[in-house]
Amino acid sequence: MPDQHTVLFVCLGNICRSPLAHGIFQHLVDQSNFTNQFHIDSCGTGDWHVGNPPDPRSIQIASIYGIDITTQRARQFDPATDVERFTHIIPMDASNKKNLIKLGVPEPKLTLMRAYDPTLKTPQDVPDPYYGGDDGFERVYKMLTRACDGLLVNLMN
Ligand code: 4NP
């Protein structure tokens, strides 16, 4: 479908933050009856977890809010195909963004996830919750929800 919005969420491992962003944004788009107008995916810049399901803590926090991310599988960003396939490539933090620029993503396609959070004046990183406790996932979930709301408003206006 030529008029689809194509959105790719990117983090480091593609098991904690970007699968959650993917699940939250897909849920929001579906609830708004915009499903046919979007193609949404996520990936990581690293390859350590390729083929794995999301981290159990991301699965759990999503399920608390009625979102099922269990069928997602981690994949690595592919410069040969992803740059062309996606118009909006959305890194979770400044380090992911730097890596994507090194991999050849043109800057106009790149926007930090929290740049879409209307409550922030300057975008901040979505912190990596991998090595922290479970409360990190709750915080990240809330940050991602605000940014996903802002992203949908941005794309549909
Ligand atoms: P993510 O978190 O980038 O949000 O998926 C991480 C998961 C795993 C690793 C780093 C970050 N790791 O080093 O294995």
Descriptive overview:
The protein is α/β, with parallel strands linked by helices and 157 residues long. It has one domain: Rossmann fold (3-Layer(aba) Sandwich). It is 39% helix and 11% strand. It has five helices and three strands, in the order βαβααβαα. Helix 1 (17-31) links the parallel strand 1 and strand 2. Helix 1 (17-31) packs across helix 5. The longest helix is centred in the C-terminal third of the chain and has 22 residues, at 135-156. It is globular and about 35 Å long. 4-nitrophenyl phosphate binds at residues 11-17, 44, 48, 128, 130.
CATH fold descriptor: Rossmann fold
> Any ligands, ions or cofactors bound here, and which?
4-nitrophenyl phosphate
Question: In oligomeric terms, what are we looking at?
Answer: single chain
Q: Helix and strand string, N-terminal first? A: EHEHHEHH
Q: Give the radius of gyration.
A: 14 Å
Text of the CATH class: Alpha Beta
Terminal residue distance: 19 Å
So, the CATH homologous superfamily?
Response regulator
Arithmetic mean of pLDDT = 96
Largest β sheet strand count, sense and barrel closure: 3 strands, parallel
Global outline: globular
* Low-confidence spans: none
CATH architecture: 3-Layer(aba) Sandwich
Strand order of the largest sheet: 2-1-3
How many DSSP H or I helices? 5
Structural class: alpha/beta
Tally of domains = 1
SS strand fraction: 5-15%
